[in-house]
């Protein structure tokens, strides 16, 4: 039997409709994109066909996190997603030269997102992750309309300032009828590799409280981890780059729940 045939046989069949998760946060900088990238790579490593749609059109960071900057090929009216680390990717970052600000306004953004959803040849996907911009702005609202069958994955740090704004996104999703798959607490207490001491730089309790407020499970707590940050900067998500790192172990565990 040819290798290609054996590989196809080994891969699980793509489901007719992929599971879609909209990864959201109340504010920027809480690690939403980092969590998205790592969950995607962990899911792909488990044999699933995974796509990431970077809907953070102004603050896109998916190209950097995956270490790719390539313009998607257009073929017969559709775009082929860019492949990296076993994941299919589409991002506005692929269409602008590095450092060029994205200055699109609402209607154009809505159109771009619509195109990303309809004109991208994703192939058969098992899971699609949408990396939303932070907050409850236009794009979040557009996506709730465009992808009604998505489930929300809310990312927060343990800090109250991040949790209270994430609650608003959760409420917005609920009002739009979107189910909430769960909460990921990121930047939780770091563990000293030398002495094992826990340091809660951003405090504690944000994930638990958000989960209670939006009535969804807390899927995991990803520690503040220098390895995760360094891996992201290298364009190789930590679950791939340093799978034994504490953050990688937890992110891989969270992916199995999706
Ligand atoms: P967001 O998408 O919420 O704006 P990012 O994913 O871009 O946030 O993360 C913001 C910064 O924090 C990045 O520099 C990233 O490397 C870093 N970071 C995210 N999560 C962690 C973590 N658990 N430990 C250490 N650094 C992290």
TrEMBL record:
<keyword id="KW-0408">Iron</keyword>
<feature type="binding site">
    <location>
        <begin position="26"/>
        <end position="33"/>
    </location>
    <ligand>
        <name>ATP</name>
    </ligand>
</feature>
<dbReference type="GO" id="GO:0016887">
    <property type="term" value="F:ATP hydrolysis activity"/>
</dbReference>
<dbReference type="GO" id="GO:0140663">
    <property type="term" value="F:ATP-dependent FeS chaperone activity"/>
</dbReference>
<comment type="subunit">
    <text>Homodimer.</text>
</comment>
<comment type="function">
    <text>Binds and transfers iron-sulfur (Fe-S) clusters to target apoproteins. Can hydrolyze ATP.</text>
</comment>
<keyword id="KW-0067">ATP-binding</keyword>
<keyword id="KW-0547">Nucleotide-binding</keyword>
<keyword id="KW-0411">Iron-sulfur</keyword>
<dbReference type="GO" id="GO:0046872">
    <property type="term" value="F:metal ion binding"/>
</dbReference>
<keyword id="KW-0479">Metal-binding</keyword>
<protein>
    <recommendedName>
        <fullName>Iron-sulfur cluster carrier protein</fullName>
    </recommendedName>
</protein>
<keyword id="KW-0378">Hydrolase</keyword>
<dbReference type="GO" id="GO:0051539">
    <property type="term" value="F:4 iron, 4 sulfur cluster binding"/>
</dbReference>
<dbReference type="GO" id="GO:0016226">
    <property type="term" value="P:iron-sulfur cluster assembly"/>
</dbReference>
<dbReference type="GO" id="GO:0005524">
    <property type="term" value="F:ATP binding"/>
</dbReference>
<comment type="similarity">
    <text>In the C-terminal section; belongs to the Mrp/NBP35 ATP-binding proteins family.</text>
</comment>
<comment type="similarity">
    <text>Belongs to the Mrp/NBP35 ATP-binding proteins family.</text>
</comment>
């Amino acid at each position: 039997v040819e290798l290609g045939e054996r590989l196809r046989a080994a891969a699980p069949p793509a489901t007719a409709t992929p599971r879609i998760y909209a990864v959201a946060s109340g504010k920027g900088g809480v690690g939403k994109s980092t969590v998205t990238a790592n969950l995607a790579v962990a899911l792909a490593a488990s044999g699933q066909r995974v796509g990431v749609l970077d809907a953070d059109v102004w603050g896109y960071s998916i190209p950097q996190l995956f270490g790719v900057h390539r313009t998607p090929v257009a073929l017969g009216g559709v775009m082929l997603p860019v492949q990296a680390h076993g994941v299919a990717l589409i991002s506005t970052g692929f269409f602008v030269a590095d450092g060029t600000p994205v200055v699109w306004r609402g209607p154009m953004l809505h159109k771009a997102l619509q195109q990303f959803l309809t004109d991208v040849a994703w192939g058969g996907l098992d899971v699609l992750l949408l990396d939303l911009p932070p907050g409850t702005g236009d794009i979040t609202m557009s996506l709730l309309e465009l992808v009604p069958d998505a489930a929300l994955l809310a990312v927060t740090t343990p800090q109250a300032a991040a949790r209270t704004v994430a609650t608003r996104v959760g409420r917005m999703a609920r009002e739009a009828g979107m189910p909430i798959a769960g909460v990921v607490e990121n930047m939780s207490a770091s563990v000293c590799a030398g002495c094992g001491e826990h340091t809660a730089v951003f405090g504690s309790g944000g994930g638990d409280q958000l989960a209670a407020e939006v009535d969804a499970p807390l899927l995991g707590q990803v520690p503040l981890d220098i390895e995760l940050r360094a891996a992201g900067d290298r364009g190789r998500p930590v679950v791939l780059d340093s799978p034994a790192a504490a953050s990688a172990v937890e992110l891989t565990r969270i992916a199995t729940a999706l």
